[in-house]
């Protein structure tokens, strides 16, 4: 298994999973995504969305049946390894991301403020949305292959 950009078939799977998991589907482009797939079946996916003022890790998930096996952490590490600048994210599971060198921040770019507002308005989950930041250069290089 290898991290790569999704092909057309894999991107269709990602779009279905995004709907199923109620994830951010705003302006999804295949080139923003990385997938981990096994013989064309998507196991994990995530994207780095570039804003003028920030890079955002978003729209990330692990297919049911493969959760709690380390694939989510490996996906985050892969996305960190290809990031060109610090990475921000909006999450309701800060404990997961704090294990991968993200820190909760109270000051963040306007694009993330808009994301928090959108999530709070559109995704009523009953949990607090946190903005977290990972600083470029604060992690070991993850493997390209699993």
Keywords:
single chain; 146 residues; alpha+beta; Aminopeptidase; seven-stranded mixed sheet; 30% helix; 27% strand
- What is the topology, as strand order, of the major beta sheet? 1-2-3-4-5-7-6
SS summary, helix count: 4
CA-atom Rg in angstroms: 14 Å
The parts where pLDDT drops under 50 for at least 5 residues are: none
Superfamily (CATH H level) name: Gcn5-related N-acetyltransferase (GNAT)
Query: Which fold does the CATH topology refer to?
Result: Aminopeptidase
The total number of structural domains is 1
Q: Proportion of β residues? A: 25-35%
The global form is globular
Summarize the structure.
Helices cover 30% and strands 27% of the residues. It has 146 residues and is α+β, with helices and mostly antiparallel strands.
How is the secondary structure organized here?
Elements: E1 2-4, H1 8-21, E2 33-38, E3 41-50, E4 55-62, H2 71-82, E5 87-91, H3 94-98, E6 103-104, H4 110-122, E7 130-134
Parallel strand pairs: 4-5
Antiparallel strand pairs: 1-2, 2-3, 3-4, 5-7, 6-7
Task: Write up what this structure looks like.
The protein has 146 residues and is an alpha+beta fold. The protein has one domain (2-134): Gcn5-related N-acetyltransferase (GNAT) (Aminopeptidase, 3-Layer(aba) Sandwich). It is built from four helices and seven strands. Strands 1-2-3-4-5-7-6 form a seven-stranded mixed beta sheet, with helices on both faces. A hairpin with a 4-residue loop joins strand 3 (41-50) and strand 4 (55-62). It is globular, with a radius of gyration of 14 Å. The mean pLDDT is 91.
């Amino acid at each position: 298994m290898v991290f790569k950009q999704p092909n057309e078939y894999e991107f269709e799977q990602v779009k279905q999973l995004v709907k199923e998991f109620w994830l951010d589907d705003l302006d999804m482009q295949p080139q923003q995504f990385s997938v981990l797939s096994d013989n064309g079946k998507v196991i994990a996916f995530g994207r780095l969305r570039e804003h003028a003022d920030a890079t955002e890790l978003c729209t990330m998930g692990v297919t049911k049946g493969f959760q709690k096996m380390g694939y989510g952490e490996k996906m985050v590490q892969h996305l960190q390894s290809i990031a060109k600048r610090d990475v921000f994210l909006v999450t309701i599971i800060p404990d997961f991301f704090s294990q991968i060198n993200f820190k909760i921040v109270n000051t963040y770019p306007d694009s993330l403020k808009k994301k928090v507002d959108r999530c709070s308005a559109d995704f009523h989950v009953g949990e607090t949305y946190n903005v977290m930041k990972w600083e470029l250069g604060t992690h070991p290089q993850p493997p390209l292959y699993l």
